[in-house]
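pasting for the record
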Amino acid sequence: MTLAEKIIRLRKGRGWSQEELAGQLEISRQSVSKWEGGVSIPELDKIVRMSEIFGVTTDYLLKEEEEGTGQEWKGTEGEAVFSGGSAVFEKEGEEPRFVSMEEAGAFMEVTKKVSGWISLGVFLCIISPICLIIFGGLAEYGFFPFSENAAGGIGLMILLALVAAAVAILIFHGFKLSKYEYMEKEPILLEAGIIQQVKEREEAFESEFRMGIVIGVMLCIGGVIPIVTTAFLESLLWEVLSVGVLLFLVACGVYILIRVGMIKGSYQKLLQEGDYTKKNKEASRVVSAFAGFYWCTVTAVFLVVFFRTENGKAAGLIWPVAGVFFGALYVVVKGVVMREKKR
């Protein structure tokens, strides 16, 4: 690969035009055009400046190679290694997207801040039917000062308010991460020096991640305990309340699991490890399409049950049940896709 080809590839990896690169080097666009066309060769000081901008060595720029997109490319059969990171390409000519140190740092910080809000949105969805179930049960057994219809109406209003708040939170804060979606679906190339920093942050977070997983799973499993105790207590009041306690404990567990999982995932996305290797990124495209179809279907079912049957309790239970089934279906769909990719 010639110097001209390397300049073109590095510039496109940053997503820059010739004018933008020229601005970084304080030269004219025509000069960059001549370099990339092989008409002229950059002066030594400009080569040094480009090595600093792109995070590569001057030796890499000056030495002609058969392949190169970053500081050093190695590998065979489509596998390339760069500065300790790796990317595997489906076909010849496929290039990873360049991620600067500033962009990687911003991504990790945004994910850390947004993770709590996204977790809260899911938490609200899970607990949304609690009031509807408890108020209806209390009214049925005479523990509520209003009629069953009034209790159901109050519970339904609370359910809709919580779901609306949850959807608003998920959409608003989800947009903050939308600009980084390419990290889940495309091969990326990190600027030199980032990989070690990301690994250090991942190692520092590891103990919190493990603790979060343990507590989250314990809460989800422990949520069944209140239901089991109803067989021994023989209390109508506790029988009604136990369902609410179950949903609340599960919601707390899911909140913790999602929050620590998102933060851990931000490190894995940058390092292209775990669920974010090249093969898994290909599978995630299919899984993302499945998730969109699944939740649109769940919403349609909720609306049909709610308006056609006027059964608020049944409609309210659709969301937590759908959430549990989604986790199981997600694993199955991803496993099938990954198996097909290996064939």
